[in-house]
Amino acid sequence: MKHLGMTLAVTALALVLVPQAQAGGAVSTDRFGYTGTTTRYATLADARAGTNALETIAIDHRDLSLFVVKDLPDYYDDSTVIMGSWWYTTQGSAGSGNTRGNTGVGFLQIYEDPNVTGNVAQMAFGDWDGTYWTSYTLSVFGSGADYDSSFARFSPFSSNTNDKGIYHTYSLTLTATGLQGVLHGNVIESFNHPTGVTGTFSGLFENTSSDPAKQGFYTFQMTLDMENWAFSQNGSLNGEYHDNGNIYPSYFAQTVPEPFTVGLAAAGLGLAALRRRKR
User: Fold this and answer.
1) What's the CA angle centered on 210, arms 206 and 212, to 5 degrees?
2) In the chain, what percentage of residues exceed pLDDT 70?
């Protein structure tokens, strides 16, 4: 019985430290940046095969805004928003002087309703340190996101005009670190900005504008980082969109399925029994 009690306690502890499955969650953050390249092709077949490239364009550091919600209706409807944080400014008018989230080479925008487009999002906390879940993984995969349904834009040009089109495919994967996730009811939540990120954003975009100089098929590969112009201006942001001079707060959440909730109750009993045995 002694060994059985110890096993139950350790098993219950494992349930606390590792959220095994998740039904939904949310990510809202303007903290990350990205940099990378895009390659232009004349045909979809060439773009998919990676042959007969017309040109490759470097994309310098850009600011990124993410808003992804899945099965968390008390927070917001299901959404997938991946775009440049164009609204931040230090010059009074939204986006004015913002060449990292607004104007410039590499601006992008996807504003999807997953219930319409059928994209897939997965998210989960990890790395329990005894007080917090400190990391968060997010994966989003989509296809067929066009301007009519998803306001799809991608601009590998200095002038962000005639940049509408369709994302034939896109994939976002990341791991954010330095979080302070705590269980509130049936949701693990972190309200602080992450301190680190690894990940990529890649895909294939078709420019469907009427401008022949911009038409074509663009594959892109971005690497996520923590370099972010708007965050570096914290305390000085103004205009219509900011939070007391700072970028908006970050929010990371993961819902916890019922078996995990039962596991938490069992963990409390198991750990209490283990403590009594040590006394």
Assistant:
1) 75
2) 84
